[in-house]
Specification:
The complex is a heterodimer. In chain A, about 70% of the residues lie in helices and about 5% in strands. By secondary structure, chain A is mainly α. In chain A, helix 2 runs antiparallel to helix 10, helix 3 runs parallel beside helix 6 and helix 11 crosses helix 12. Chain A is globular, with a radius of gyration of 24 Å. Chain B is of the alpha/beta class. Chain B contains ten helices and ten strands. In chain B, helix 3 packs across helix 5, helix 3 packs parallel to helix 6 and helix 5 crosses helix 6. The chains are: A mainly alpha, B alpha/beta. Chains A and B meet through helix 7, helix 8, helix 9 and helix 10 of A and helix 2, helix 3, helix 4, helix 5 and helix 6 of B.
């Protein structure tokens, strides 16, 4: 029951916000809240690998981009020219392809969204696995640099490949029918349902990760953070656990990438940029590192503000500033900051000044 | 046959022979101590047994199985627990949680089962908690179960580390200077505790500087000097060994 309470509050809040935006005719907010929920999904995945297991990744925008781009490319790139190859025929036979027409009326053969989504997530998972085996042997800032290198590679690949649309990215990505009558798309008519799809996915993701950190595996991950040597001596296969949690967080990022790309109807190279990875790390830090709820709340709030354009052209600068300020003033995250203690200190200071003034007044 | 058999173990760091051709055995159910002046290679020897370091040559057999070259977590799974000279507790975790990590090898919930909170994992979790609390009670630190482990007093931290090592139900326990940094009273308590651990059927191998502790509880003592084994005997014989006295007191 104790565990269900925060979820119930969250669910109530989600419904209340939707109703309020409906009444006040401000439904446009739902669009940014939907997008924020997808970014928050990536952020809670990063929170587990970074905050709990202590493995800093500066390449998570790369996994997000792999998810988004692979799904976008598969659902938009025409396979008509390869129609007679064995592989394409096999895919067609398995019902993985869908025929249609492009905007010029030519016939178009693409992969179905479900197959594309699974392929994209699988792809990100496999890449995380292959990358993780050598890279997770590194510690501290060496690991950060290696994952940063990975992020840069993905960024340059999407920027340079024709299949990924180079600097333009991929547009006209079709909607993703999850269930009959329920699809991920950016249509104005589907705003409410997409808001609930995004938040539903985020809550499922949050519950799974909360269960994870609150278990034998979660303790093992935190022990790796505490002392890798002692964790090994206690019987924790640190290499395996680090790799598994890294892959899980990459899958979270890829799922977020797939959904957001189908929601937006496209994806551009900025989603793969290093600044995005830095932003995600900053948000996990603001949330309190080993703090799933904090990461989620901050992921929603900061992404929402950013998407609303509150930070203007200084967007990335704001996140850089947040990172510095958090490290200096609240290294355990903004939620764990001793607000009361700080208030009491201000109050004491004020009183001291007053009493001092009284004394000096008496002297005068 | 001895429970732990070390034969012709050798570890070179560059040109330095940190452990040089050392052989000895540890009998089941006994307490054996490794002593020697600073730099004699005691901790290196420990790290070789526990798998934190790979030997240059030689063999370590445990229960008849060759464990040299295995990873530390595999060696732990064989039934060898250890503590560290400079206590290594998991920060940001309570004393109880630290000990619960020690139950890792005695439980099996993986990623998928944990994420789905399968009913059997909840039962397992309860068992882990109960067993860990029992160990904290055994070491008389159950009052601090929910206190962050690294904020405890030094002696209590050492006790938490003991409990964590015992939680994996080892057949052999490696103790790296269990009395380092403790006062006389605390040392006496550790000495009683080690005897109690032996009575539980756990074989103990320890490295220690505190001679009173070593002489009191050990069944046998190995003396190392400059990486080589100088002597191996019962405490009373070691006390009267002229070679050993020379190494410790100078000529």
């Amino acid at each position: 029951m104790k565990k269900l309470f925060p979820l119930a509050v969250l669910a109530t809040l989600i419904i209340a916000i939707q109703l309020i935006t409906g009444w006040t005719d401000t439904r446009f907010y739902l669009t940014q809240l939907t997008m924020s929920a997808y970014y928050a999904l990536l952020i809670i995945g990063l929170c587990v690998v970074m905050g709990y297991a202590g493995q800093l990744s500066l390449g998570h925008a790369g996994f997000f981009a792999i998810g988004g781009y692979v799904s976008a490319a598969l659902t938009t790139r025409n396979l008509e020219g390869l129609k007679d190859t064995v592989l394409i025929r096999l895919f067609d036979g398995l019902g993985l392809l869908v025929a249609g027409q492009d905007i010029y009326g030519d016939s178009l053969l693409v992969v179905t969204p479900w197959a594309a989504c699974l392929a994209a997530v699988l792809c990100a998972g496999v890449i995380a696995w292959v990358l993780g085996i050598p890279v997770l042997k590194l510690k501290g800032h060496y690991l950060a640099m290696a994952t940063l290198g990975f992020g840069i590679i993905i960024y340059r690949i999407v920027l340079a490949s024709e299949v990924f649309g180079e600097a333009d990215g991929i547009s006209d990505v079709p909607s993703f029918p999850l269930l009959p009558g329920l699809s991920v798309s950016g249509d104005f008519g589907a705003r409410e349902e997409n808001y609930y799809i995004a938040w539903g996915l985020l809550i499922i993701g949050l519950v799974l990760l909360r269960n994870l950190v609150d278990s034998r595996v979660g303790r093992a991950l935190r022990s790796i953070h505490g002392s890798e040597e002692a964790a090994e001596a206690t019987g924790v296969d640190t290499a395996r656990f680090k790799l598994q949690v890294f892959v899980i967080s990459a899958v979270y990022a890829a799922v977020a990438g797939v959904f957001l790309t189908h929601y937006n109807g496209g994806i551009g190279p900025s989603e793969a940029g290093v600044m995005k990875s830095v932003r995600y790390v900053a948000i996990v830090a603001v949330g309190g590192m080993a703090h799933l709820w904090g990461a989620m709340v901050m992921g929603i709030v900061l992404n929402f503000l950013s998407l609303r354009g509150v930070f203007g052209s200084y967007d990335d600068a704001v996140f850089g500033f947040i990172l510095i300020a958090i490290m200096l003033f609240a290294p355990n995250g903004i939620l764990s900051w001793n607000w009361r203690g700080y208030g009491a200190m201000l109050l004491r200071r004020g009183r001291r000044r007053e009493s001092l003034r009284e004394k000096t007044d008496g002297l005068a | 046959m001895a429970l732990l058999e070390i034969s012709r173990l050798h570890k070179k760091f560059g040109g330095l022979h940190a452990v040089n051709d050392v052989s000895f055995g540890v009998a089941q159910g006994s307490i054996k101590a490794v002593i020697g002046p600073n730099g004699a290679g005691k901790t290196t020897l420990f790290n070789l047994i526990a798998g934190s370091l790979a030997a240059t040559s030689g063999r370590v057999r445990f229960n008849g199985e060759d464990i040299q070259g295995q990873k530390p977590h595999q060696i732990a799974a064989c039934g060898i627990g250890r503590t560290f000279q400079n206590i290594k507790l998991f920060h940001d975790m309570t004393a109880l949680e630290n000990v619960m990590v020690g139950r890792h090898l005695r439980s099996r919930a993986g990623f998928v089962a944990s994420m789905l909170h399968m009913p059997w994992t909840l039962k397992e979790e309860k068992q882990i908690r109960e067993k860990s609390l029992e160990l904290l009670e055994l070491l008389e630190i159950d009052a601090y179960a929910d206190v962050e482990a690294t904020s405890l007093a030094f002696g209590q931290q050492r006790a938490v580390e003991f409990a964590r090592a015992l939680a994996l139900e080892p057949t052999l326990l490696l103790l790296d200077e269990p009395a380092a940094g403790l006062n006389m009273q605390e040392t006496a308590e550790v000495s009683k505790l080690i005897a109690r651990i032996r009575d539980l059927g756990i074989t103990v191998l320890l490295v220690e500087h505190d001679m009173s502790l070593v002489m009191e509880i050990s069944d046998e003592i190995v003396v190392l000097s400059f990486g080589q084994k100088l002597a191996e005997d019962v405490p009373s014989a070691i006390q009267n060994n002229t070679e050993v006295i020379k190494v410790y007191l100078g000529e």
